């Protein structure tokens, strides 16, 4: 295991710098662990950044401030070359609580993440729903986020993941559900 950090960008602004532990890495992808209470840096404009119109963001972006990862720890799977990551969430008692599929692009050895807003929440029984569809649609066509063609690719990536969810295929086959970050 080794320690590293991920840097999450959104709308052309660096929003979060998060220390993580690399649990394992091979040609298929990289598994990261993020412990609850981890000290990190993130912008804190007082409400979710997605809710603040892009034109109201300050020139140069909001400053990064010290913060912590609230709640329980998570695992993050970054499949190589894919346009998404999968996060494992756990309850306070340490039981598996569900998967969160974050649609994103990555570069620099998967350390730099550009968030694409649209997400999928997956219950342990593999029922699922899109998240943040309205906000995703509202940003489509803004050059600082994504154009219509890229939006279609982002949703298509999500639909590919849905096929894995519905099939109960890796990584939605129980893999790592018993691990505790
Ligand atoms: Mg997202």
Index terms:
181 residues; mainly beta; seven-stranded mixed β-barrel; 2 helices; 10 strands; 44% strand; binds magnesium ion
CATH class: Mainly Beta
Named CATH architecture? Beta Barrel
Terminal residue distance: 12 Å
Strand content: 35-45%
What structural class do helix, strand and pairing data support?
A: mainly beta
The set of bound ligands, ions and cofactors reads: magnesium ion
Order of helices and strands: EEEEEEEEEEHH
Which stretches are low in confidence, meaning pLDDT under 50 for 5 or more residues running?
A: none
* Total number of distinct structural domains: 1
CATH topology: FomD barrel-like fold
Report the oligomer.
Answer: single chain
Shape: globular
Q: What is the makeup of the main sheet?
A: 7 strands, mixed, barrel
Number of helices: 2
Rg for CA atoms: 16 Å
Instruction: Tell me the CATH superfamily.
Output: FomD-like
Mean pLDDT equals 96
């Amino acid at each position: 295991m080794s320690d590293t950090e991920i840097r999450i960008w959104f709308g052309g602004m660096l929003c979060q710098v998060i220390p993580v532990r690399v649990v394992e890495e091979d040609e298929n992808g990289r598994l990261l662990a993020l412990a609850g209470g981890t000290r990190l840096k993130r912008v804190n404009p007082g409400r979710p950044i997605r809710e603040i119109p892009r034109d109201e963001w300050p020139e140069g972006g909001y400053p990064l401030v010290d913060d912590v990862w609230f709640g329980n720890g998570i695992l993050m799977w970054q499949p190589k070359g894919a346009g998404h990551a999968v996060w494992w969430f756990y309850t306070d008692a340490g039981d598996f609580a569900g998967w969160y599929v974050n649609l994103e692009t990555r570069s620099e050895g998967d350390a730099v993440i550009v968030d694409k807003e649209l997400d999928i929440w997956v219950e342990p029984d593999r029922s699922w729903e899109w998240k943040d569809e309205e906000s995703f649609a509202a940003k489509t066509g803004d050059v600082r986020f994504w154009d219509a063609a890229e939006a279609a690719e982002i949703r298509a990536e999500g639909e590919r993941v849905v096929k894995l969810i519905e099939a109960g295929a890796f990584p939605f086959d129980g893999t790592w559900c018993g691990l505790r970050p």
